[in-house]
Please model this.
Amino acid sequence: MTLEDYLALLAQISPAARDGAQAYLRAFAQRCGRPLTALELRKAIAQGSGDPVLMGMVSASHPSQLAQRDALLNQLSQRIRCEGQGQP
Model:
């Protein structure tokens, strides 16, 4: 499944899920220096309770969080881990 198809499925579940995933993708690429694959995103959502940073970005993308969204997303992006990349 392509990343675009997966994001479209998330949008059907919840626009906040898609928006949070897109924010996570952007932050991961910026912090880790490479794009996250569709498989990696699917694993981040599905394993256990989901990656806490990603789940936080989904929550921050909910319309009820509009006033704090940018600050929350910035804070969460600093917590992204780049496994195997030699970065935080």
Remarks:
- The mean pLDDT is 90.
- Helices lie at 3-13, 15-32, 38-46, 52-60, 69-77.
- DSSP finds five helices and no strands in the chain.
